[in-house]
Amino acid sequence: MSEFLSTNIPKFTSAFSAIAIFFIVFGVIFTIAGRANGRKARPIALVIFLGPALLLLLAGVVIPGIRTILFSFMNPDSNGWVGFANYKWMTQDPNVKIIMINTILWVLVVPLFTAALGLLLAVMLDRIKHESIPKSLLFMPMAISFVGASIIFKFVYEYNEPGDVQIGLLSAIVKFFGLTPSDWMLSKPLNTFLLMIIYVWTQMGFGMVILSAAIKGVPADIVEASALDGAHGWRLFRNITFPMVKGTFIVVLATGVVGALKVFDIVRTMTGGNFSTNVLANEMYSQTFVQFDQGKGSALAVVLFLLVAPILIYNIKSLRKERTH
Amino acid sequence: MAKKLAVHNPGRKIFSSKIAAIVVWAVTIVWTIPTIGLLVTSFKTDKNILDQAWWTSLLHPSFTLASYKGVLFGDGTQSLSTGVLPYFVNSIVITLPATIFPIAIATMAAYALAWIRFRGSDFLFFSIFALQVVPLQMALIPLLLLFTGGAHIGSITIFPALGIAGKFAGIWLPHTMFALPLAIYLLHNFIAGLPRDLMEAAHVDGANHFTVFRRIVLPLSIPGIASIAIFQFLWVWNDLLVALTFASGTEEVAPLNNKLASLVGQYGSGYTQLSAGAFITIAIPLIVFFSLQRYFVRGLLAGSVK
Q: With a CB-CB cutoff of 8 Å, which residues 54-73 of chain B face chain A?
């Protein structure tokens, strides 16, 4: 116990002293800079308020981003140019082909399921009493890490030899229906879809909650007016509710696409990218930190960035539109 | 008012409320079962974990805290020699500063972008917003190189090696950097919406930007700051990629999530105690989630709905 304390108390001390120093430094700067007045006051305030953020963004995002682009044209140790060799490797390597197919599958399946299921539940939640309890429970997985969620599903997907007791829920259900369970994580291409379920399980609540808020925001008089015109059920949803929440639905879809492109933790925890389940973000990590090939790792990161970019442009455009209104 | 109208309005019935209730509750049960399975499994005995399904265990209860004891304090096996308690401490030590630093810096930046007019402020705001979608992966390698070797142009050192790789500061810093684009964007939405009269009145009374920030902006922004802080807290606590890259996996600095991921590949006791380990890891986020759900949802909405 005393050994535990002696190694861990200093950790807390370092965290709390870092926080204290941070606030003391800014407190002192605020006090000194607050004395400046006249013409210099505004530029000084700007530098102090904006400076730290800009510096950190420059050093932590902008410059590293540019360097990663440069590294993608260099050798594994980033000390010699290799032209497009790392990108050529991507087009020729059979493993990368599997990775690309899987990544495309993730992008096609996951956002649609997450958003559609979220919308369905949001619409239905709007119709029931005591919606807060199911809403909380459906939303709860969002607070769980992908690693935690993967372990939860590892027990669901657990498989034993046919003669033994099946302790995994999926295997037990399959057995109950008289079928033979298989070692799920080894069965391709099913395994990739089983990994997607984990993602949908954690992220569906996000779509549900924000779509639910959007549905509540549909003005009641519009609904009323169209009801008087005879719109009911599906027609009301298609003609009134859905068009009103379409913007939010697209936001949920776009968020899903970005998430699916970047999926890493689930694949790393469940299969380590083996058994044909590998995806872009996991291969980027493996190339860089397992194979120690910074060139290929950087090239994969750049591809990831290029895939995310169109969504970024779309988001900026809709934000600009929003701002001018 | 709007809600009341809607409830009494038969035209709003897309699905009858009975069908809706059945579907919602059915999905809720399906959604909750995996977590319950993990919880039940974590209280089973070592032997039962491997050869008794958890729903069977519910009918023949024989529960124990052995897994929790083993996973927290160590069970003498190679994978869990010292238990996960030190990693739990690391998670707290990583998460607190990695939440406070970016939120504080982002609040200041958001204030400047919203209330100190200068040429190019709109452009700057959109540039920062755009950085949001630069994936983490784009920055990992160069940042790690910066921490270990500094920055050089040719043989000239323009930035010395920080020597913080594998230390807590080496994890706080990347988290702070990566959190800024989204945090500035969300806080800007919030702070820009504060009443203009209030700011102008304060400036007329002779208050400078620092006073306005501390006396007016900070107190009024607490709800917004709280929602974003909860988000950042969960993001850091649940992170794996930054921890894997910058924490080197050791007991000195690696967080719980990192340790948990490394236990997955183990068999034997490392495997049976996985459920207890997982539950310890997700306990803190779940407590935060259930106690501060309102702020959590508000943070989400601020980010995505007009």
A: 54-56
Expressed as residue numbers, the domain containing A111 is: 85-324
Residues whose CB is less than 8 angstroms from the CB of residue A210 and which lie 6 or more positions away in sequence, other chains included: A248, A251, A252, B300, B301, B304, B305
Do A305 and B17 count as a contact with CB atoms less than 8 A apart? no
Q: Are residues A48 and A193 in the same domain?
A: no
Taking contacts as CB-CB distances below 8 angstroms, the residues of chain B near A270 are 264
> Smallest Cβ distance to A209: which of B25, B184, B297?
B297
Contact A46 B112 (CB under 8 A): yes
Whether A38 and A141 map to the same domain: the answer is: no
Last residue of a domain, one of A37, A71, A105: A71
Helix or strand holding residue B156 (H, E): strand B156-159
**Pick from A71, A104, A121: which residue ends a domain?**
A71
In terms of phi and psi (left: phi > 0; alpha: psi -120 to 50; beta: otherwise), the region of A202 is alpha
* The model's pTM: 0.91
A167 and A268 housed in the same domain: yes
Whether residue A77 is contained in a domain is answered as no
Is A50 part of a structural domain of the chain?
A: yes
Kindly determine whether residue A143 and residue B2, on different chains, have CB atoms separated by under 8 Å.
Answer: no
Within this chain, do residues A91 and A8 fall inside the same structural domain, yes or no?
A: no
DSSP B172-232: HHHHHHHHHHHHHHHHHHHHHTS-HHHHHHHHHTT--HHHHIIIIIHHHHHHHHHHHHHHH
**A59 and A139 within one domain:** no
Q: How many domains does chain A have?
A: 2
Considering the domain architecture, whether residues A233 and A204 belong to the same structural domain is answered as yes
- The enclosing domain of A106 has a CATH number of 1.10.3720.10
d(CA B56, CA B77): 29
Fold of B85-304: MetI-like fold (1.10.3720)
Where b means 16+ CB within 10 Å and e means fewer, B27-64 reads: bbeebeebbebbbbbbbbebebbbebbbeebeeeeeee
For chain B, 306 residues long, give each residue's pLDDT as a single digit of tens: 444 444 444 444 555 688 889 999 999 999 999 999 999 988 888 777 777 888 888 888 888 888 888 888 877 676 677 788 999 999 999 999 999 999 999 999 999 999 998 999 989 998 998 888 788 999 999 999 988 877 776 667 767 777 777 789 999 999 999 999 989 988 998 899 899 999 999 989 888 999 999 999 999 999 889 988 988 999 999 999 999 999 877 888 999 999 998 888 665 556 668 889 999 999 999 999 889 888 877 766 665 433
Q: Tell me, yes or no, whether A91 and A170 share the same domain.
A: yes
A307 and A238 housed in the same domain: yes
Which of B1, B275, B297 shows the shortest C-beta gap to A155? B275
Preferred mutation among B73, B100, B111, B138 to probe A, highest tally of A CBs within 10 A: B138
Q: Determine whether the interchain pair B139/A147 forms a contact, defined as Cβ–Cβ distance below 8 Å.
A: no
